[in-house]
Amino acid sequence: MESHHLFVKCSFAAGVWFGSPVPLCTNVVHSDSLKTFVIEMGSNLDRAQRTRFLLCLAVIIDTIWSKRNALWHNLDEKAVNVREILDSVHRKFWEFSQICENGDTVLTVPASPSSEVQNLPTANRLIFVDGSFKEGKIGAGMLAWDRVTMDWFFEAKATDGMSEIAAEVYAWLSAFQWAKKE
């Protein structure tokens, strides 16, 4: 229920969705969990539309969660700026959208305002991970997208742990274990 509020229903998330590359008015979507939101939104879309929606969902979740972690763990972090968040969502969405579906083309985008460039990932599977820590517990979340089959995979785990770093390492370990078995 908390993830549903954080990523869909709170006024901040609703504003991000409304201004996103796949603009939605989330207040009119009847869902009681993040899972039912995804099912409700994706059920009537064709393959290309569903891919755009799921990519936008992944980018929005990653952006909101990263900002939440920055605010939670860094006292020097500035307040939330919706315009800044929307710029980040649009940039990330555009970057991932530029990767060819068959994964055999390397595209570059500016890494900074300078003339430096970086290669975008071209693997068939993209994996997003995040870890969290609170009161002696660590959690790990993994979201993967297979660009060939357009399938999405997710996994979440929790265990005892002592720090934020342990949580992040646990998240990466979980992703590596998943990738190895897949």
Can you put this structure into words, describing what you see?
It is built from six helices and five strands. Strands 3-4-5 form a three-stranded antiparallel sheet, sandwiched between helices. Strands 1-2 form a two-stranded antiparallel ribbon. The longest helix is centred in the N-terminal third of the chain and has 27 residues. With 182 residues, it is of the alpha+beta class. Strand 4 and strand 5 form a beta hairpin. It is globular and about 45 Å long. The protein folds into two domains: 97 residues, no CATH class; 60 residues. This is RNase H type-1 domain-containing protein. It comes from Cannabis sativa.
List keywords for this structure.
single chain, 182 residues, alpha+beta, 3-stranded antiparallel β-sheet, two-stranded antiparallel sheet, 5 strands, RNase H type-1 domain-containing protein
Judged by helices, strands and strand pairing, the structural class is alpha+beta
**Regions with little confidence, pLDDT below 50 for 5+ residues:** 100-118
Number of strands: 5
Main sheet: which strands, in order across? 3-4-5
Percent of sequence in beta strands: 15-25%
Distance between the termini: 29 Å
Overall pLDDT score: 79
* Helix segment tally: 6
For the sheet with most strands, the description reads: 3 strands, antiparallel
Number of structural units classed as domains: 2
- Topology order in helix (H) and strand (E) letters: HHHHHEEEEEH
Shape: globular
Roughly what percent helix? 40-55%
Radius of gyration computed on alpha carbons: 17 Å
